[in-house]
Amino acid sequence: MTAFTHLTLTDFRSYQRAELPLDGRPVFLVGPNGAGKTNLLEAVSLFTPGRGLRNATGAELSRRMPGETQGRAWAVAAVIEEGGEPTRIGTGIESAGAARRTVRLEGEPVPPGRLADHQRQVWLTPAPSRKRRSWAGDRRRFFDRLVFAAEPSHAAHASAYEKSQRERMRLLTDGPADPAWLTALEARMAEAGALMAAARARTLSALQAEIDSRGDRPFPQARLTLTGDWEKMAGEGVDLAEIEARLIRALAGARERDASAGRALTGPHRGDLAVIHA
Length: 278
Fold this sequence. Notes:
The chain is of the alpha+beta class. It contains 8 helices and 8 strands, in the order ββαββββααααβαααβ. The protein has a 6-stranded antiparallel sheet, with helices on one face. A two-stranded antiparallel ribbon has the order 7-8. A hairpin with a 2-residue loop joins strand 1 (2-12) and strand 2 (15-21). The chain starts with a strand and ends with a strand.
């Protein structure tokens, strides 16, 4: 079992300094509006890859006093107990105004994706219908957070895919579009993209099975699907190596079109989550 045993906030949002000892039991936060309850939840949410509960930048999370032109450096730290062994994790910005936060594990800097190796989070927040009305990218990010909870390695694969995609588009739009370099980047994208598609398909299958098992409840049922071609292949049982090979061919064949569009038009970053009430 994994549990938070200590949480510390420094110059984070409304908190100059706060320490919260925990013992693994459920926690209920009670207080008037503006007391800082959501700020505490947001602090905990930053121990996952991404930008947290409110999708805020690092600079937006800083505590700022009247008259200060920019927020201060901030930090959120925690002790997590895993199988009786404590692990120290932390995140924050190290200089005032910095946009990108750093992540530390036992005091050493690590990629944000490593956070998912030590604890997993699922957020249930108000107004879920916003996901239905939002852009495909918002729904995809929401679904990917569910995938992170089931398969922590998904965060690292998504990060590797996005990094290679940015480098590929920079070559296609700014040059030089070196074929060998593009081929290498597309191979990395395809490897990570195939793993992403497979993880999404597995998570979708598990969610649908959980929904179907609760048919006796007095709530509408739902049918979930992923609209991306690559996730569909994975869901149909196409071999991972075959998905990777097809994605390599698709990316190579789309270079001219992607260069003209200024963005990649094929790949798992184009998929969407569809929910139909049954």
